[in-house]
Amino acid sequence: MITKRIIPCLDIKNGRTVKGINFVNLRDAGDPVELASIYAKTGADELVFLDISATEERRKTLADLVLKIAENINIPFTVGGGISSIEDVAVLLKNGADKISVNSSAIKNPTLINELSGKFGNQCITVAIDAKEIDGEWIVHLVGGKVPTDLKLFEWAKEVEKRGAGEILFTSMNNDGTKKGFANEALARLSTEVNIPIIASGGAGNIQDFADTFIKGKADAALAASVFHFEEIKIPELKTTLQKQGISMRID
Fold first, then answer.
1. What CA dihedral angle connects 81, 213, 194 and 161, to 10 degrees?
2. pTM for this structure?
3. Known catalytic residue: 130?
4. Which residues share a beta bridge with 148?
């Protein structure tokens, strides 16, 4: 049985961890280095660090902060935000990132996925997809969910897999921050249409939401932010409960 992963997400703006609802109304959630250290010690399988305003503000991801976080954790660490070149990735990997995540830059220049995968290997290339269901169609958005594109979720997912993505981080904009559960129907369809791991993001509110996304959504990993940052769910309890439901977890 494949072990499922629990992944806290650190959305970073101005050097602080923030969290919003439906990608807006951000509030402070703490110091990212401190949070990362706590998660590494309390059972998180991986961490995701997203510099959420890097693309919009046309600047690079905060490489120094990446280094500080990497020095304080011992679990795999994915970094995204403002990454648009081989040079950007090289700096982040040198500073301690294990994987990188591209989103808007891959939409604007799909061959970037090929280039990064060819240079660094698909095992460290995650493609993040932010999509919103509009009139029954999942539409891909860029620039932190602010700009709709002509791309459809499932077609884009298949393309990024062909281009060399090692996994997909799918965030449902409809579910983000609502704490009403993940977009499990879309996740289940994604898992049948591509052969790379899918990370579910957007909507975690309670432990059962995680169970549902692994069972109904067929997700390989579940990512969440506020329920962890504000200690509404503690990772050790979450993993123990999921394990009792027959979902394979890594428990130290």
1. 10
2. 0.91
3. yes
4. 141
